[in-house]
Design goal:
The complex is a heterotrimer of chains A (318), B (328) and C (327).
Chain A: H1 7-14, H2 26-47, H3 49-70, H4 73-76, H5 78-81, H6 105-140, H7 143-158, H8 161-172, H9 176-186, H10 189-203, H11 206-213, H12 218-254, H13 265-274, H14 283-311
Helix pairs in contact in A: 3-6, 3-14, 6-7, 6-9, 6-10, 6-12, 6-13, 6-14, 7-10, 8-9, 9-12, 10-12, 11-12, 12-13, 12-14, 13-14
Chain B: E1 2-15, E2 18-31, E3 35-39, H1 46-53, E4 62-69, E5 72-73, H2 79-85, E6 90-93, H3 107-117, H4 123-136, H5 153-164, E7 171-175, H6 183-200, E8 203-208, H7 211-217, E9 220-225, E10 228-234, H8 235-240, H9 245-253, E11 304-307, E12 310-312
Parallel strand pairs in B: 3-8, 3-9, 6-7, 7-8
Antiparallel strand pairs in B: 1-2, 1-4, 4-5, 9-10, 10-12, 11-12
Helix pairs in contact in B: 3-4, 3-5, 4-5, 5-6
Chain C: H1 2-31, H2 37-45, H3 51-60, H4 67-79, H5 95-130, H6 135-149, H7 152-166, H8 183-221, H9 224-231, H10 236-258, H11 260-274, H12 279-289, H13 292-320
Classes of the chains: A mainly alpha (318), B alpha/beta (328), C mainly alpha (327).
């Protein structure tokens, strides 16, 4: 009548397919887990229309930037264009028109892509590194460290960054790398606060306590336990930081503080403005770099928001 | 007199990942003055039912079947009537210890809001009544000028109870009212609920995953699994002599202190509750069931007779039709 | 009383932050500043100074005493708004006086634009969050993101191109016409000139405020006390007004306070684009001339302005959130 349940067979069949119990080393397991996590993340990201659109924009501009490293140099040489039209509107030969020296705006814009993107990226890396280190230190170490570091962070949060940046630029020069450092050094505070908050919440988890009870050093706990937990949030924040860095660079360049040897989009706008492009109706000279800035920043923002949604899912049913 | 009647109640959420059938055909009745306990693990659909009764779900959520509160069809109520019925016909006690109270509003105001929304009293009368309600749950009336953060978890829960009674409802639904509390406070709050229910003759729907709590409080018990009721009957009988394997496992996981059955064999239930979008074929419990047989993979059990005043959805119960006569 | 303690605490923090900032300013403008301000000043005036006269100036400016002593004097000076004299832009002129005249113009522009921006952003954000994915919400989200991605000066220039150069509705720049009118006509003239810069500043940040308020409201709408309010039979609009919005405003205020620094940064470029004779434009002129005395004043004044604005935000927060007022 009633047969003894052949549980083992039925159970494994019903449940989701489980990987055969191969003997994997911890490192291989970790790598496999990470790969799976990344592919899950990518699958979720692919679903976000906003994220994919932003990614498309970024890929386009990175392509332009890479292109500018190999081609385009010739068109920028003013001696080539002395006979060309000046301040001419868009035409077939000059799709984005020319500026006051007869140089094609398109070529300038392509060149500017590389500079603006590079400065933004580099400055963001510095900002992220500073912010993460300070945030982790403040969150993980004793309350005294935390209090002091947070006071300093507050100072930088409160400072209108441009007021500080122009002073630094005026003092230390307008070199390409100095600008990068200045932007990095004035914009880390937001990241520091975010990282600190995350560290504080992760710190209380049980496995951290257990690890310390077993005698793990601070460095060990931070590197092996806390940092992996923070990676997704930090990564999403980095993307948004790059967007802000690009905007910041454009502001500094517009004020004339950009490196005159490496003309970013902001520098282009500065030159255009001071050459009177506004009153001369040379809108192409102003708009080409402007629209590029807007598109690139939008791209990073969309990707950043999409990532943030995946990393911090908000369950909103009602 | 039947206060609440549900028949073949089905609730389906629509999400980005597809439709999620949280409740898949649930029927029960609660009479005046009766306490029905609804137990099950997280995700079995029990809280969804409470929300459905007051139609608190988003407009995207599909609710089908019959749901009658004091004879009135809840599912077809117009917005105005629905708002009038809410809180006066049935009210809810959430887990107050977390974020069920507005942090920036005084608790007295929150209680008075319930009264005034239904036009039951003037401002002054409502204030007096709020104070009286607080007293009824064991809090000094002057605390109505306090903000939620000034109260302890247990006190907040009492406020939730006071608020639920504000409009003298016929049915009170308690959704995990003691889960977030310390054990001692849990006991006090349960005692309070019991005495209020008894004194005021309230019908109550008590929802929790902690079976041992329900045994004391409820008259009847219904156990839910994967969106359906799998066992129901008199509370003490269901707990001490479960007919469905899931009930047995659940009871074993929450032994009463002093219950010698489990002293030497603490039992647990392996595995996880099924994903509502991927419910196993046949009996949804069979992958985790100790007593599953081959037929369990194909036969969808219904609530069959399992004794006097008892029903259970398992092929092993007395009232289950013989396996040969049941198709897949 | 809890509120007083909270506010005093915030004031104390403000003061410590101010001291730290002023110390940073000391480092920047006294210790690290390239060149010798006295000789720079002398060169800028074009007049000839003897060595003793230069030393005399050095003594007047307090630059011949050891650094620690300079530090103390410096702090006192900064806190009393004594910024010394301009070295290059307008050699010898008292820096403070250069500021006060321009301060009012910037202040009107900044305060009205910020208030408008916050008000519009918050109100739209509430509406957008409530009617999520509706036409207003989707349109506003897109517009907000584009506005967020646009540098303020770009927005300003677009407005100039369209409204001033293109349509001739507004003047291209400045604060008032070359031949200033008098009386009432003067005010309409000023407003006419301020319109585009004001619009630029308002729209530049409205996107952020919209996104923040909307996000905050959506978070709050998922809380249990909202479900409870509906369960009690409260009408939707009161659920929004009495439960959702008061709670959603709290994180919004915090984030709005954080953007004051960005708004002040933005003013600098906007005033440049419109040649609006305010404090921002002055800083640009000082930057071009490398007049560190004026730059120093810009630095300190802008920081104080942000601190003040933050304090007002803290006051508002304390008013709205009883939890920070605990006795």
């Amino acid at each position: 009548m009633k047969t003894e349940p052949a549980i083992a067979a039925t159970e494994t069949e019903i449940r989701a397919p489980v990987l055969p119990p191969k003997k994997l080393t911890p490192r291989q397991l970790k790598r496999a887990r990470r790969r799976r996590a990344l592919s899950r993340f990518w699958a979720a990201f692919r679903q976000s229309k906003m994220g994919m659109a932003g990614l498309a924009i970024l890929i386009f501009f990175v392509g332009v930037a890479i292109f500018s490293m190999f081609a385009n140099k010739g068109a920028l040489d003013p001696t080539v264009t002395t006979n060309g039209p000046r301040l001419a509107g868009p035409s077939l030969k000059y799709p984005l028109g020319t500026q006051v020296d007869g140089i094609s705006v398109l070529s300038l814009t392509i060149e500017g892509a590389r500079i603006s993107l590079f400065v933004g990226l580099a400055a963001a890396i510095i900002s992220m590194a500073l912010g993460t280190i300070i945030g982790m230190w403040a969150g993980y170490k004793s309350a005294v460290h935390d209090a002091i570091l947070m006071r300093i962070t507050d100072v930088f949060l409160v400072l209108p960054w441009l007021a500080l940046a122009i002073v630094l630029a005026a003092m230390f020069g307008q070199n390409f790398w100095i600008i990068i450092v200045i932007i990095g050094v004035t914009s880390w505070a937001g990241t520091a606060r975010l990282v600190r908050a995350q560290v504080l919440s992760v710190k209380e988890r049980n496995y951290i306590e257990r690890s310390r009870a077993l005698g793990a050093s601070d460095a060990h706990v931070v590197i092996k336990h806390i940092t992996p937990n923070l990676m997704p949030v930090i990564f999403a924040n980095t993307i948004l930081t790059i967007a802000i860095a690009i905007l910041s660079e454009s502001q500094l360049s517009f004020l004339g503080l950009g490196d005159p040897q490496s003309k970013s989009w902001g520098t282009m706008i500065d030159e255009a403005f001071h050459a009177g492009a506004l009153t001369l109706h040379a809108w192409w000279w102003l708009m080409a770099p402007s629209i590029c800035i807007v598109l690139v920043v939008l791209g990073f923002t969309m990707v950043g928001f999409a990532m943030d949604e995946i990393v911090n899912p908000r369950i909103r049913e009602r | 007199m039947t206060v609440l009647r549900a028949e073949d109640l089905r609730v389906t959420y629509s999400t980005k990942g597809g439709d999620v059938p949280a409740v898949r055909g649930v029927s029960f009745e609660i009479d005046k003055g009766e306490v029905l306990g609804l137990a099950g693990e997280s995700g079995c659909g029990k809280s969804t039912i409470a929300g459905a009764i007051l139609r608190l779900h988003s407009p995207n959520t599909k609710i089908e079947g019959t749901l009658e509160l004091e004879g009135e069809d809840v599912l077809s109520l117009k917005p105005g009537r629905l708002r009038a019925v809410r809180w006066t016909g049935a009210s809810i006690v959430f887990q107050g210890a977390l974020h069920a109270l507005n942090p920036v509003q005084k608790i007295g105001d929150q209680i008075e809001e319930a009264i005034q929304v239904h036009g039951m009293a003037t401002q002054k009368e409502a204030a007096v009544r709020a104070g009286a309600l607080l007293e009824q749950v064991g809090l000094p009336p002057r605390r109505k000028d306090d903000y939620p953060h000034e109260l302890s978890g247990g006190q907040k829960q009492r406020v939730m109870i006071a608020m639920a009674l504000a409009c003298s409802p016929t049915l009170v639904m308690a959704d995990e009212p003691t889960t977030a509390l310390d054990v001692m406070v849990q006991a006090q709050v349960l005692q309070l609920l019991r005495s209020l229910q008894h004194d005021l003759g309230l019908a109550m729907l008590f929802i929790t995953h902690d079976l041992s709590v329900l045994v004391d409080v409820s008259d009847r018990l219904a156990i839910m699994y994967a969106g359906k009721i799998v066992e129901e009957g008199k509370a003490s009988e269901v707990f001490h002599a479960p007919q469905h394997p899931y009930t047995a496992a659940l009871a074993a996981a929450f032994p009463e202190i002093g219950d010698t059955r489990f002293r030497h064999r603490p039992a647990g239930l392996g595995g996880d509750p099924p994903d509502p979008q991927h419910i196993p074929s046949g009996c949804p419990f069979h992958p985790r069931c100790e007593r599953a047989i081959d037929a369990c993979q194909t036969v969808v059990p219904e609530l069959w007779d399992a004794g006097p005043g008892r029903r259970a959805a398992c092929v092993h119960v007395a009232g289950a039709p013989s396996l040969e006569s049941v198709g897949s | 009383m809890g509120t007083a303690k909270y506010l005093l605490g915030k004031l104390g923090q403000l003061f410590i932050t101010l001291l730290l900032v002023l110390s940073l300013a000391f480092l920047l403008f006294r210790v690290w500043q390239p060149g010798d301000p006295v000789t720079t000043f002398a060169k800028a005036t074009g007049a000839h100074y003897t060595a003793e006269q230069l030393d005399q100036i050095r003594h007047e400016w307090g630059l011949d005493v050891p650094l620690p002593q300079q530090y103390v004097t410096y702090m006192k000076q900064m806190l009393t708004f004594n910024f010394g004299v301009s070295t290059i832009l307008s050699p010898g002129t008292d820096v403070s006086s250069m500021f006060w005249s321009r301060m009012a113009k910037s202040a009107i522009l900044i305060t009205t634009a910020t208030l408008a921006s916050v008000a519009i952003g918050v109100l739209l954000g509430i509406y957008g969050g409530w009617k999520r994915q509706g036409a207003v919400d989707q349109g506003s989200m897109g517009t907000s993101m584009v506005l967020y991605a646009m540098p303020e000066f770009v927005l300003g220039m677009i407005f100039i191109l369209i409204f001033a150069v293109g349509l001739h509705w507004f003047p291209v720049n400045r604060y008032e016409s070359a031949i200033p009118a008098t009386g009432f006509a003067h005010w309409t003239d000023v407003i006419n000139h301020m319109a585009l810069p004001w619009l630029t500043l308002t729209l530049a940040y409205v996107g952020e405020f919209y996104l923040v308020m909307r996000s905050s409201l959506l978070d709050v709408l998922g809380e249990e006390y909202i479900a409870l309010a509906r369960a009690k039979g409260v009408r939707e609009k009161y659920v929004l007004r009495k439960h959702a919005v008061p709670n959603a405003l709290l994180p919004t205020i915090t984030l709005v306070a954080l953007s004051f620094g960005f708004i002040l940064s933005g003013v600098i470029t906007v005033e440049l684009v419109f040649s609006y004779p305010g404090v921002g434009k002055l800083s640009v002129e000082a930057l071009d001339a490398r007049d560190f005395a004026v730059l120093q004043a810009t630095f300190v004044i802008s920081v104080i302005a942000v601190l003040l604005a933050n304090f007002i935000a803290d006051l508002t927060y304390a008013y709205l959130d009883p939890r920070v007022r605990r006795a």
